Amino acid sequence: DTGFDGKMTIHPDQIDVVNAAFSPSKEELADAKELLEAADGQLGAFRFKGQMVDVPHLKQAQKLIDRAGSDEHAESAVPAEKAKVKPEWPDGPYHGKWLEELTEGLMIPHALTRTVTETDNLLFTALSMNPAKMHLDYESAKKTQFKKPLVNSLFTMSLLVGVSVLETTHGTTIANLGFEEVLFPRPVFIGDSLRAETEVVKSRPSKSDPTQGIVTFMHRMYNQNGDIVCTARRNALMRARPSKL
């Protein structure tokens, strides 16, 4: 039953509104003081200004007085302008690698692995508005050489790039420049467990801007049998390590 008293954090834009809502008016403060003075020596409930009051009313009156005192202290200690200052958007942490770390030939095994579910395939296929029965219809899939639905290949590619981000480009990339080649040597089926690795194929600093450079990655994804199910060669514009780090 903490109500608003239990609210621990607020948005900076709420500060003025909340302060106004919780700051007692002069009339409320005067009534609270008068009530507590009238309660001095009283036992149990008693009549005050034509109304019956009891312990809960006294507690609320004391809260108003205490809050008024803390508000006065807060106003003198923290200017309103400071309370309205919005924090800067965080720039880290950096889990990816800087341009200098992405040397040609570097192999990066990725920690994230994933078992593909039917929900993954269904949602991705629906979101991409792909009506192909080979991804959605079990009866139609029985007539194919695979005998069961294929996982949408673009989901496989997206997953491959996604699981590579943490150890390669997280917080250190500027832009994805594009894919040179994407291959699907083997199909992926619902229930397959996938892992990935990335090889740095090329890496060079920018000729016009020393704070960045272009890196060519070769991403590879394997199923639980060790078969390659997807390869993607892509170029990314990467940040050089900032001088402050």
What Rg, in angstroms, do the CA atoms define? Answer: 32 Å
What is the count of β-strands? 8
Integer tally of domains = 2
Supply the helix-strand structural class: alpha+beta
In terms of quaternary structure, the protein is single chain
Q: Assign the CATH architecture of the largest domain.
A: Roll
Question: pLDDT average, as an integer?
Answer: 85
Q: How is the main sheet built?
A: 6 strands, antiparallel
Quote the CATH topology of the largest domain.
Thiol Ester Dehydrase, Chain A
The CATH homologous superfamily of the largest domain corresponds to: Hotdog Thioesterase
Name the poorly predicted regions.
73-80
Work out the helicity level.
Answer: 25-40%
Counted by DSSP, the helix tally is 8
* Proportion in β-strands: 15-25%
Provide a descriptive summary of the structure in words.
One of its GO terms (molecular function) is catalytic activity. Residues 112-207 form the MaoC-like domain. Pfam families: C-C_Bond_Lyase (PF15617), MaoC_dehydratas (PF01575). InterPro entries: C-C_Bond_Lyase-like, HotDog_dom_sf, MaoC-like_dom, MCH/BMMD, Pyrv/PenolPyrv_kinase-like_dom, Pyrv_kinase-like_dom_sf. Helices cover 34% and strands 24% of the residues. It is α+β, with helices and mostly antiparallel strands. Strands 3, 4, 5, 6, 7 and 8 form a six-stranded antiparallel beta sheet that branches. Strands 1-2 form a two-stranded antiparallel ribbon. Helix 2 crosses helix 3. It is elongated and about 90 Å long.
